[in-house]
Amino acid sequence: MLIKIPKKSELSENQVTQESVYLQRRQLLKGMGFIGAGTLLSSALSSKAHGGVFDLFKEKEKPVFTRKDLSYSGQAGAENFPEKLTPEGKVISHNNFYEFGAQKHQPAELAQGFKVNPWQLKISGEVDKPITLDYDQLFSTFSLEERIYRLRCVEAWSMVIPWVGFPLAKLLKMAQPNSRAKYVAFETLHDPEQMPGQSSRRLGGGIAYPYVEGLRIDEAMNPLTLMSVGLYGKTLPPQNGAPIRLVVPWKYGFKSIKSIVGIKLLEKEPPTTWNLLAPHEYGFYANVNPGVAHPRWSQASERRITTGGLLARNRIETLMFNGYGEEVADLYKGMDLRKFY
Amino acid sequence: MVSKVKAGTAFDSPFKLRLNKVLTTKVFWLKVLIHLGALLPLVNLYYLALSDQLTADPVEAVIHFTGIGALNLFLLTLLVSPLSKYSRQAFLMKTRRLLGLYTFAYALLHLLNFLFFEVQFDLALFVGEIVKRPYMTVGMAAFVILLLLALTSFDKVKRRMGKSWQKLHNYSYLAVVLAGVHFYWSVKSEIIEPGVYLALILALLFLRRDKFRRWFKGKR
User: Fold this and answer.
1) pTM
2) Interface test with A, best of B129, B187, B189, B192 (most A CBs within 10 A)
3) Record: contact A35-B186, CB cut-off 8 A
4) CA B170, B174, B177, B182: dihedral to nearest 10 degrees?
5) Fewer CB atoms near the end CB (10 Å): N or C, chain A?
């Protein structure tokens, strides 16, 4: 008989809602959305409303992505993490992953059939030893550890998530960057057949694909910078960036690129997706900074998503570097962070 | 139902009486439908949101639902007069005020959702965002117009205002454009849906081109 002794970080699992329950709730909301749109908008939309009713039945038969248990070591002091975790059901149902739809509930619905095995992650560019990791090697090459991090979205909401993964620095060191390697560029899988947002402009929200991101090499080498392969003790669900994603906890969430197939070491600063789309709103650095507002909203505070529903008093002050200043402030010494936002 | 009796006495021929009865009944049921269509989704919405069953972020969900709902109702309201004109169904006009008031109610909820649940009574932040962020300013301007229209929607006020009532209520065209711009401006990159709304708004204004032409001539 297997006796599992739960770690303290798992205590919050009693607040966690089953994946299946969450998906059912999605159906509820979806039905309601059609009441809103279908009855209020002109009759031209009524055919869409009928379609919605059929979708409801169809989606029940859709497969749910299977996540596997991971073995990992706990983060030192993780059990003392002072803030309440965001329930797993919320972490995996509220995602900005436009490859699977630009609305936050869509990735959890549209990504369930995503194939992550086989997978190839290539590390190339200004390195002495280019590496390619296959699916199994993502989990076996480095020892996995749990890291509980705050995730601050540029839209001024946040979560606290127990990731499982390994430091990016370990991976980069293995590839042996040469002296010209000043930046690290990341690329998400481009597979329009599997990622409906890449083939439909309506679903994909009008950003350019494949999604690309980048870090300065010293940011990439910082011990906080994590390559995550799991959350809440299991492999990542596709909507959170399976099989492997970046987590840079002191930067806005859009820097933490998902479902990565390529990492390239470069001499020059690489282009990044949101910066290409709206350079005055999203900079290359995108460090969490309560003093620099997004042109359309304040970044001084945020809503922490945990439990409690509509009446939860969850607005909190946003911390400089999302509270990780001790570890990363030195990286930006002498830089004008208003200019390099 | 009271109005049915009252209206009936105003007509003399039995044919007209019957006709009137049918029309009144149609309006009655249409209004019932509007009440249900506007209120039931709200009951469902707030029940799910309060019990934390409405997406991972119920705050965003209620703000979006009431915002889009207000816009949907606004478009419906503006559809009433062209629809009643082209279909020659005058009774439809009797639903316009109700739809307009529900537009205001949804817009009010949209704003209160933002104040209560998004900024959570941080009044400095509330005012700051409305003043500093153009897309919020534009939304607020649309709301102020809707507020004025709602306050002057009573028969008594309408009578007392005379000609200026129509002048004031013509600002609904400005308000709907502002609301459409507010939506378009609020999104990060997914502009197709707000783009469709802007197109629908322009189409509804196009149906009134004669009216605008008359204003233009009148001013010259």
Assistant:
1) 0.85
2) B189
3) no
4) -130
5) N
